[in-house]
Amino acid sequence: MSRIANTTKSVLLEKFTETATLSRDAATSGGWSYPLLGIVYFVSHPSLYRAVAPIIIKCIISALGITIGLFVFTYIPQVAFCALFSGPFAFITAAVMVLGEAYAIILVLSKLLFVGQAQDEIFDAVLLQQGNEQLVSRGREVRSSSGIKKLGKSITLAKPLSRFSMKGILRYIISLPLNSLPIVGTIMFFLYNGVEAGPGFHTRYFQLKGFDASTRQSFVEKRRGAYTAFGATALALNVVPIIGLAFGFTSTVGAALWASQLEKKYGLTKESGHVGAAQRLPEDEVRVEL
Question: Which InterPro entries match (predicted)?
Fold first, then answer.
């Protein structure tokens, strides 16, 4: 028994150390800032938010119905469950769990019914606005007319790229009970899922770069803290009641801004698969119509 206890203690200590190290790297990486920068960029560029406004409205209406339904039918039972772990904080932790469950349902439905290729087009649009035309041209036609650049049809996307996997959804659902632990559990929940969610926002970037599975894994591992921070922040925004899916678009914008910065910083290295120097164009020379 003592041997089993020592082994268990050793494994838990190792996991705790790994989590602490990842948390520190995530906090100092700056990756958390890009979803926030994406919000500012999105609202300051009418060509982006006007293009997806109809989709966002549909998502908000659906999210409203799903969130209200879950609170009506599942909130009280989850308060009783959370009371076992968080005592007087049960009403808060149960609300976080319900919002998390609502997000999982809304995410799947929106991907199937509403979002389609919009996120990939938004990603390409921001890269184009940042002057990465040669990179975007690897996967999409770029048309020019009277000094104005516009996105054309996709060369590589027969269907929308998946930014979430069944593994990621199961990981998310299994970890939802962590929210029953006040503050610490919620932080662990976001970090745990951020590990998987972060790289998903660069799925299109990896495709445009021509990365194979091995190159992608190596690229992500070198920036694991930054991707975890990005994923955790994006997920925290996504679970905001009702309007969370709108933040899915702003986080996509943030991911494109980050990709552009990576191109500028590592663009001349062999690892990057670089195709040309990026020169940001004046706003009046870029028009994106999705």
Answer: CysZ/EI24, Spore_wall_assembly
